[in-house]
Specification:
Layout: H1 3-17, H2 21-26, H3 33-50, E1 54-56, E2 62-70, H4 76-91, H5 93-108, E3 115-124, H6 135-150, E4 154-158, H7 161-169, E5 173-179, E6 185-191, H8 194-197
Parallel strand pairs: 3-4
Antiparallel strand pairs: 1-2, 2-3, 4-6, 5-6
Helix pairs in contact: 1-3, 3-4
């Protein structure tokens, strides 16, 4: 990937983050909010590249981050420096405290043993959304290809009801709903490849 391609992905992720309730919650309000969203996007894209988790649609307008992970990966010390930088540059201390509390519940919804795939981020730019476009289907096919290749379940969550409906249309099962402290409902979804579901 060239620096230009990476910069283009970061720019698109920055745009998409401004529509997602979870990122809107954590980014501190006031001042240069755009720069905070951009810093968060840089952090996410760098992590995705490092873990070989970045998925980009053919037209470049669909971007997802799909980690192959496990509970053992939850090492605070391994990520402490970058997370502390996020507190100062993106969230602020008050928001960081709220994030830790909600993340504890969210993480408990994922497998506590063994590996799984986790969809940390999935966004499609406005011009590539809608029934006439194939970007969502194309990306879903890539998620399922990886789930079948590794024979691992795939987990995701969203606070956007319309996204939860799309996930279910694509074959994800809704296995939990939670009243998020923000007042939204959070939807927890998973896809289990056929070999794994037997």
């Amino acid at each position: 990937m060239t620096q230009e391609e990476k910069a283009d992905i970061i720019k698109k992720v920055t745009t998409l983050l401004k529509e997602i309730p979870s990122s809107m919650d954590i980014v501190k309000k006031g001042g240069n909010e755009h720069r905070r969203y951009e810093y968060l996007a840089i952090h996410m894209v760098n992590k995705a590249i490092e873990k070989d988790a970045l998925i980009v649609s053919e037209d470049g307008n669909g971007i997802a981050i799909l980690f192959r992970t496990s509970k053992k990966d939850d090492s605070f010390w391994k990520n402490a420096w970058s997370e502390l930088k996020l507190v100062f540059k993106v969230t602020g201390i008050k928001n960081a405290y709220k994030i830790v509390k909600t993340q504890n519940y969210i993480k408990k919804q994922r497998p506590q043993e063994g590996e799984y795939l986790y969809c940390w981020f999935w966004g499609i730019l406005k011009e590539s959304r809608g029934p006439g476009t194939q970007v969502g289907v194309q990306m879903k096919n890539e998620f399922y290809r990886r789930a079948k290749l590794y024979n691992l379940p795939l987990y995701a969550e969203t606070r956007m009801r319309k996204n939860a409906i799309v996930y279910q249309k694509f074959g994800f099962q809704l296995f939990n709903k939670w009243e998020h402290p923000s007042g939204d409902t959070m939807y927890f979804l998973r896809y289990i490849p056929e070999e794994n579901s037997k």
